[in-house]
Please model this.
Amino acid sequence: MHRFFTDPSQIREKEILLTGPDVNHIRNVLRMRCGDEILISNGQGTDYHCRLEELGEASVTASVMWELSGNAELPCPITLFQGLPKGDKLELIIQKCVELGAVKIVPVRTRRTVVKLDAKKEQARRKRWLGISESAAKQSGRGIVPEIGAVLDFSEALKEAASLDVCLIPYELAKGIENTREICSAIKPGQSVGIFIGPEGGFEEDEVAGAIEAGAKPITLGRRILRTETAGMALISVLAYLLES
Model:
């Protein structure tokens, strides 16, 4: 069943209003008709099973058939602090990490970051990244649209991560896999988790040292060296396996 998101202000007791790009998608791409059924989420974890009632040019009205409690979220909110990669790799990272359950993705400038974004470019990119997040959330049945944070310097990212319960930083010089198993297995449902992933070339040693000093726990992802676009996905997958009941 097709899923759409709307602002909670558009939700009434018996009906919900959809506006914006979803109107064209429903009318002209999916070619839906009155009477067709859809899922609408308030972006805060509650879903509504609805029936289309009116398909206008600027808005779509759907009647609420019943309310559902969303159950697609991980027991721990995971924030990915992703070193800015080259090209369009971040788009793939956002898509897949949203599908896997991340609640927020923060692009991070590190010393080895090659990409340079001025304010105008960042605004345009972030708008596209938010669209990718919403699309991935729809596809994967999420009850929320994960946030895409503003681009932060590494030091700023560490300050933001300080409020989280657990922070992990994959590092090739970290202790063996048994230590990593212990660290990941000790994470409990309800704890907030941050993951730091470097750009191409990884973090510099003093950046890792700074993260550890700030409380991040160095872990290994195994004997293989993973690309920047693979590492975050791999670690979120491990945590999802350990945490989901």
The radius of gyration is 20 Å. The longest helix spans residues 119-140. Residues 207 and 213 are 10 Å apart (CA to CA). The longest strand covers residues 59-69.
